Fold this sequence. Notes:
Elements: H1 2-23, H2 43-68, H3 74-103
Amino acid sequence: MLAxxxxxxxxxxxxxxxxxxxxxxxxxLIHDYHQKxxxxxxxxxxxxxxxxxxxTIAASMLLSGILGxxxxxxxxxxxxxxxLFAGLILGIVILGRVQKKYNGGLF
Length: 107
């Protein structure tokens, strides 16, 4: 589980960097077709809302990595994976809601 934890930490930190960059208004990191119908005056608001989904995913990865450090037994592995998948699902739901609100749909 050490390799799993290190991988979750590395990817989680990468997502934190990505989320913080988007939060500061770097919408170039979001694909063009995801923001095609977002008005220019709402781009910063859109970026901040979008970053919440990215940071939620990052937090679930970091928490899952921390849980993975507690052992390789069934309950520990189950808790780490449930945390990871719950965070991924929550993050994707947040991203979907942001897309629908600001872009009028996913694409």
